[in-house]
Specification:
heterodimer, A: about 260 residues, mainly beta, 5-stranded mixed beta sheet, 4 helices, globular, B: about 350 residues, mainly alpha, Cytochrome Bc1 Complex, Chain D, domain 2
Chain lengths: ~260, ~350
Amino acid sequence: MKKLLIIAIATVSFTACKKDKTPEYNTTIKGALSVEFDNIAGSSDLQLNTATYTNAVGETFKVTKLKYYVSNFVLTNANGTTYTVPQDSCYFLIDESDESTHEPVLRIPEGEYKTLTFTVGVDSLRNTKDVSERVGVLDPAGAAADMYWGWNSGYIFLKLEGTSPAITSMGSVFMYHVGGFGGYSAATPNNIKVITLDLTARGNAKVKQTKSANIHLMVDVLKIVNGSTNVSFATTDMVHSIAPGVPLANNYAAMFTHDHTEN
Amino acid sequence: MRRKYWLIFFIIFVAGIAACHKNDTAPSISFQKPANFPEPVYRFANNTITLERFELGKKLFYDPLLSANNTISCGSCHIQTSAFTHHGHIVSHGIFDRRGTRNSPPIMNLAWSTSFMWDGGIADLDLQAIAPITNHVEMDETMENVLNKLRSSSQYPALFRKAYGTEEITTSNFLKSLSQFMLMCVSSNSRYDSITRGDAGKSFTAEEQEGYNIFKQKCNSCHTEPLFTNYSFHNNGLSISSVNDEGHYLITQNEADKYTFKVPSLRNLAYTAPFMHDGRLLTLDAVLNHYTDQVQQTPNLDPAFQQNAKPGLVLSADDKKKLITFLNTLNDKSFLLDKRFAE
């Protein structure tokens, strides 16, 4: 009896061990994969309203608002097979002031994924959809109320607002609103940015139904103003239309880095 | 056997009466394309017109609840007796008497419009109302607050239930109702329309016909029949005012669109003065004088106005008189009096 028990335990632990080394994925079932957007400023955690940061041209500033859309998530597994999160569940609005928005949860078929792709902003197709399909974070009378240009219909992809003593006008306020999906009929500048991150160096995401995986991204807001164009608050305090947003969008395309993955 | 036939006959007869009766008591409404108009561009498949939704849209259109302090409705600046413009106002005054920079355009034949606003910033009628509702100088309200006011009103939840089968007031149902009212505002019963449709006994007078010929030669390339606009954007040589309104450029940010504005329809001109995007020209005579004598060589001036030594069009005083006679055949009084659209 005792002998039998030992054998049984040994067998179970052996099986468990084996399972951990090469997990069996059932691609017909889905597991939860969260993608954490951890907003930082250089080497410190982003703090709204209080902390002071310095841009590349040496101007100090504070951030009062940071909001941006992330959408159209695509995951690529080790064999190169991709999974695209369906349209009805692939739009998220990250708002620094609301922690509950920082970690979108995706439902992904079980598997090991080595590449994460997503869009910063709202794709052109969704920007031209019937109003009945603009719900949830895309509702212009709801979550999207301050992320939508009514006069030039289209979503604002990213908002960075704050103050800088470099700005001499009243309140020393800057407001950077970046949007522009390419236009309905006439072509306009396109500020949609597709981000592709290779996860292999810092940890592939291993999605299983029984546990939740988390891809932790660092999002460095300094890179919105520092990059291929170093933006000065003194020269540019307001960005409220598509073309002036182009340098900002080109900059922020580089603000996402993969930090680690928790499996 | 015979009794059975009678019974069948009786059932059919009763059913027939019932059907008949139903048709009499249930008024309905539908979008009718005028025979001389092209196919509309609005996607009616996504917003089927019903009487309840149209009526709800009309109530919303005339309800000042849509503005921040409940004083300004859509109908404040789009008045039916002025063919849904703000007659006599160069630019409209919105909430707290704040003034905008553009002249209120007509709510008319919008089912054919490929874009909205003078600058063409909005491509979908269903998204149009958001702009004036949230504009600081127009209604200065938030969409969220409008929906909340509707939700807590004593009347609207029941009206939404009648229209949509649910008291839930969504962004989509709200905006689509407004669209239904605006879509039904079709103006197609001018003298020009009845003549073009070949109504018995209708024809242009000699002067109207001459004016029509001049129109086809000089105006029709942009103010294209039968809607009298082709919805394109042009710079017609107005001097650049202190507002420095860059028009379509504000939307596309393409240099070639600087100072261009959407071609307005020429229907109902008798009721819609003043004219131009900023309402600067008070009479039709002034408009025609602009085209002959005051066209300015500003960036992107349309090539149509650069055919002669002097920019603009060549029209004699007699041509202008005839043109105006023709343009007056585009007035549709019945549109102004149509009870279905009245407040």
